[in-house]
Design goal:
With about 425 residues, the protein is α+β, with helices and mostly antiparallel strands. It has helices at about 10-20, 30-35, 35-45, 165-175, 200-205, 210-215, 235-250, 350-375, 390-405, and strands at about 50-55, 65-70, 75-80, 85-90, 105, 110, 120, 125-130, 145-150, 155-160, 185-195, 255-260, 260-265, 295-300, 305-310, 315-325, 325-335. The chain contains 9 helices and 17 strands.
Length: about 425
């Protein structure tokens, strides 16, 4: 609860006040997890100005193949052009704003609005607009672009006119991801889950393992639940042997990080090779051939919304996208080698079992967390320095990001690509 009445303040003034109220090392004041106006602000100040993990190149493998998705109320699309280049756009017709392509993956040489049949090519240029006057200039009504970048088979997008610097992230992550050959993968499973909790609670939960021993018995078999921020475990001999083995195999380990991203390869618990129920590989055709696929987990994460684990036999991706102030869409994907056959090289049940169970357990934890945060008795509490270091890192990053957006004065509204 606030110690000062904020009635009459603008949203920006309230946010600055709340930032001043927050104690270092503590979770956020209540309104950050509940207020609809702050969610709208989060979308403008955080999601629209960040690099977001949109998916994987193998979801758009051929010219004309595309993936469309909606983030909060904003439909987006990435399509591979006839020249092989991935391009992204706001998935909204320049006529009267209708969503052009439905969410999901597909293939089309042209983007045809279902409302009035305005047609765009795969560069976003308007090619047909029936019944418009003779002097109508189609060149002025192309789709509004978004930035697209790739790293070793992953696809990132940013909606801002001037996105954050990306090259250092690419250069650091690319060699770590390269052994996993994501360009030679396929999406074997894609599940969504709606959690009745604010997106920041979802991400805080996903950034710590303080709760893992008690609430994730399956994950705790293989995951080093007592590891610190860069997944340094207390078993130094185990870690040292793993790092020496990776070095001999020519597989980079890290860690590498910057303000909004981090990546590191770490060993699983002794005697285990993959993040599965029994710790054994669940896909007989590995993604990583070196060391028989026994290469630990490459975990990479980026703010504000994602983390992923690349194992020797599969890759798992987690993404959290806000729907409402107390509702979040969680997207989970599992990738395996493109030649792996379901029912022969793997089973879908065996592939998703561990992380799907973990996501369902986390959903219950987040929803319970939200109910408690909604209480009139809620007060921010301190993070555990050892076990919640990454949750604190996320919250501090969020506070810096929105503070930087609001200051220095005078504040300027976000400029969108093509605006």
């Amino acid at each position: 609860m606030l110690s000062t009445d904020t009635t009459g303040m603008s949203v920006q003034e309230r946010i600055l006040f709340l930032l001043d109220e927050r104690k270092p090392g503590f979770s956020l004041p209540q309104e950050f997890y509940t207020d609809p106006d702050i969610l709208t602000f989060d979308f403008e100040a955080v999601y629209m100005r960040s690099w977001l993990l949109f998916g994987f190149e193998v979801e758009m493998p051929e010219p004309g193949s595309y993936r469309a998705m909606t983030i909060l109320r904003t439909p987006l699309i990435v399509i591979r052009g006839q020249d092989g280049v991935l391009r992204g756009f706001f998935n909204s017709c320049r006529h009267r704003g209708a969503q052009i392509m439905p969410d999901g993956c597909g293939k089309s040489r042209r983007l045809l609005c279902p409302y009035h049949q305005w047609m765009y090519d795969d560069t976003g240029a308007l090619r047909a607009a029936g019944k418009m006057p003779a002097d109508f200039d189609r060149s002025q009504y192309g789709l509004r672009p978004i930035h697209v970048r790739t790293i070793a088979g992953t696809v990132y997008i940013c909606m801002a006119e001037n996105p954050p610097e990306f090259q250092s992230f690419h250069d650091a992550l690319a060699p770590l991801l390269a052994p996993h050959r994501l360009q030679e993968a396929k999406v074997a499973a894609d599940l969504t889950l709606i959690e009745k909790g604010n997106w920041k609670l979802v991400m805080e939960n996903g950034r710590e393992c303080y709760h893992c021993a008690a609430r994730h018995p399956e994950l705790s078999v293989t995951f080093p639940i007592d590891a610190r921020a860069h997944f340094e475990a207390d078993g130094e001999d185990h870690t040292t042997r793993f790092e020496r083995r990776m070095q001999a195999a020519g597989i980079p380990v890290g860690p590498v990080d910057d303000g909004w991203w981090q990546a590191v390869r770490f060993p699983l618990t002794p005697g285990h090779v993959s993040m599965t129920i029994d710790g054994k590989p669940c896909v007989s055709k590995p993604m990583v051939e070196a060391e028989g696929g026994d290469v630990g987990s490459l975990r990479w994460a980026s703010e504000p919304h994602s983390f992923a684990h690349a194992l020797g036999d599969f890759t798992f991706m987690f993404s959290a996208l806000p729907i409402g102030p107390e509702e979040t869409l969680v997207v989970a994907k599992w990738l395996v080698h493109k030649d792996a056959e379901e029912g022969i090289d793997y089973t879908r049940e065996g592939l998703i079992e561990l992380w799907n169970a973990t996501n369902l357990q986390d959903r219950d934890l987040v929803e319970n967390n939200q109910r408690g945060v909604n209480s009139t008795g809620y007060l921010p509490g301190p993070y555990c320095e050892r076990s919640e270091a990454l949750a604190l890192r996320f919250t501090d990053w969020y506070c810096r990001t929105i503070s930087d957006y609001l200051q220095p004065e005078p504040r300027q509204r976000l400029q969108i690509v093509g605006g």
